[in-house]
Sequence to fold (204 residues):
Amino acid sequence: MRKRSKLLIAVATFTLLLVAGSVLAAPDIRVVVDGKHVSMPLVPQMIGDRVVAPVRFIAEALGAKVSWNPDQRVVFIHSAGINAMKQRAELLERLIEGVTPEQTAKTYAEAVRTRNGAAQYAMLSPELKKQKYESYESMNWVTGVSSPWVESYEVVSASRLQSGAYRYEVKYNYMASTGPAGNATEVLFVSTHQDRYFIFEIGK
Fold:
């Protein structure tokens, strides 16, 4: 029994040393929110296949307020700051939404020229916004490339469909440092939604 006990203790000690060694050898985990490193007194740790980090610092980096109630042992996260930013964005979108189908198409085309993904997004229908949100966000709301860039655009055709929607064909003229770089055509289908006009489909 004594030999077995000593063996178990030796195995347990060896295992503990291995775990401790792996924790010490593991590089620190950094938390980056919107491209900015979040500094926190407690280093995030890897437990199993999950990263565990202090909620306060991450929530505050996202614009939320965090409070702790020791009696209830509850962490309260107040997202008023996040909701305020969302409301501000929605109000700005409302300001540029198209009151005519032509205005919607031209506002979108101009946003393509200036690589303004936020303005392009504002011209989309609610359904198309759901489909495109992650794509715009992944580009940090800056679309296109620096070269070649869209130098100008023109609406080459406009028509009303039997469904009541509108079809606009837009030609984008590209430019590079060496001169004109060709053109590309995009077709925008515009329809009304709650007294405004939005793009519900984009084609080539």
About this structure: The chain is about 40% helix and 30% strand. Residues 1-26 have pLDDT under 50 and may be disordered. The two ends are 80 Å apart (CA to CA). Residues 6 and 12 are 10 Å apart (CA to CA).
